[in-house]
């Protein structure tokens, strides 16, 4: 299984066409953390777990950047067991975030503030990551 920790700008751009404008988008994040956050030995970073850094640093910056954009964390859960998953696939947490639109998601993750202040913490904390864009099905 290939590890993924970065957003692909081409895929992010192309995916926007899959969602009607001004329709909520629900991003499912599957997270596996590094044992210790890794900032490539950057000065001023103290050793702590990937999970600690994700919630203390990345989530803090993300909340600040997304604060006035109508973004909501709908679900945060710790994975207890993989029931129907490929052998060896493992996730630590699942986060589901609602964005008012796909354009809002792009505005946040492509912003200079996100790239400078939040993304480095995400990269330092995650061993593997899946980001799945979904839309609500009305029954």
Which regions have little confidence, pLDDT < 50, spanning 5+ residues? none
- How many individual helices? 4
In whole angstroms, the N-to-C terminal distance is 34 Å
Quick one: overall form?
globular
Strand content: 15-25%
Could you please say which CATH topology of one domain applies here? Alpha-Beta Plaits
CATH C-level class of one domain = Alpha Beta
* Rg on CA atoms, Å: 15 Å
Number of strands: 4
Structural class: alpha+beta
CATH architecture of one domain: 2-Layer Sandwich
- On the 0 to 100 scale, the average pLDDT is 90
* Strand arrangement in the largest pleated sheet: 2-3-1-4
* Fraction of residues in H or I helices: 25-40%
Q: How is the main sheet built?
A: 4 strands, antiparallel
Order of helices and strands: HEHEEHHE
What does this structure look like?
The chain is an alpha+beta fold. It has a domain of 89 residues: 2-Layer Sandwich (Alpha-Beta Plaits). It is 33% helix and 23% strand. It contains four helices and four strands. It has a four-stranded antiparallel beta sheet. The chain is globular, with a radius of gyration of 15 Å. The mean pLDDT is 90.
What features would you highlight for this structure?
139 residues, alpha+beta, Alpha-Beta Plaits, 4-stranded antiparallel β-sheet, 4 helices, 4 strands, globular
């Amino acid at each position: 299984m290939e590890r993924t920790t970065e957003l692909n700008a081409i895929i992010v751009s192309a995916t926007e066409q899959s969602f009607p404008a001004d329709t909520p988008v629900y991003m499912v994040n599957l997270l596996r953390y590094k044992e210790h956050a890794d900032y490539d030995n950057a000065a001023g970073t103290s050793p702590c777990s990937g999970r600690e850094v994700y919630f203390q640093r990345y989530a803090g910056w993300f909340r600040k950047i997304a604060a006035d954009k109508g973004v909501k964390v709908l679900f945060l859960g710790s994975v207890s067991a993989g029931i129907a998953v490929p052998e060896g696939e493992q996730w630590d947490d699942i986060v589901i975030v609602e964005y008012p639109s796909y354009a809002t998601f792009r505005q946040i993750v492509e912003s200079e503030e996100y790239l400078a202040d939040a993304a480095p913490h995400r990269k330092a904390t995650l061993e593997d990551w899946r980001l799945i864009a979904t839309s609500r099905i009305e029954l």
